[in-house]
């Protein structure tokens, strides 16, 4: 398995916001299957960072092609790179979504 970092740049917020619920359901299914380590939007909502755990780049590109965002043409891939972390992913790097009461919940416009 290999870790890949994908940086997205959002291009059409109106269409993106319409399809976002399906996109998030898709990401949740990938996370449950162990294919997506974590994901989230930049604070300024101009794009997002996703970390995938997949066999190879070909599998990653298949997963990206199946993302509901892809046929809607709401993002560009700013960067896609295989990544080798220096430290193991741990509780400090948890991918659990913040609770709304924590004050760290994503904004309504976030990914």
Automatic annotation (TrEMBL):
**UniProt domain YCII-related: residue ranges:** 12-84
Quote any Pfam family the record assigns: YCII
Q: Where is this region: Disordered?
A: 90-111
> Which sequence ranges are marked TM in the entry?
none
InterPro entries for this protein: Dimeric_a/b-barrel (IPR011008), Sec-metab_biosynth-assoc (IPR051807), YCII (IPR005545)
Family listed: Belongs to the YciI family.
Q: What is this protein called?
A: YCII-related domain-containing protein
Q: Which species does the entry assign this protein to? A: Thermasporomyces composti
């Amino acid at each position: 398995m290999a870790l890949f970092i994908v940086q997205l740049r959002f291009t059409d917020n109106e269409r993106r916001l319409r399809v976002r619920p399906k996109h998030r359901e898709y990401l949740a299914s990938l996370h449950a299957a162990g294919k997506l380590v974590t994901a989230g939007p930049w604070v300024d909502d101009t794009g997002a960072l996703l970390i995938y755990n997949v066999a190879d780049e070909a599998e990653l590109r298949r997963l990206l092609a199946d993302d509901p965002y892809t046929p809607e043409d709401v993002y560009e891939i700013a960067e896609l790179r295989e990544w080798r972390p220096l430290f193991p992913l741990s509780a400090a790097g948890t991918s659990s979504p913040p609770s709304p009461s924590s004050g760290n919940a994503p904004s309504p416009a976030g990914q």
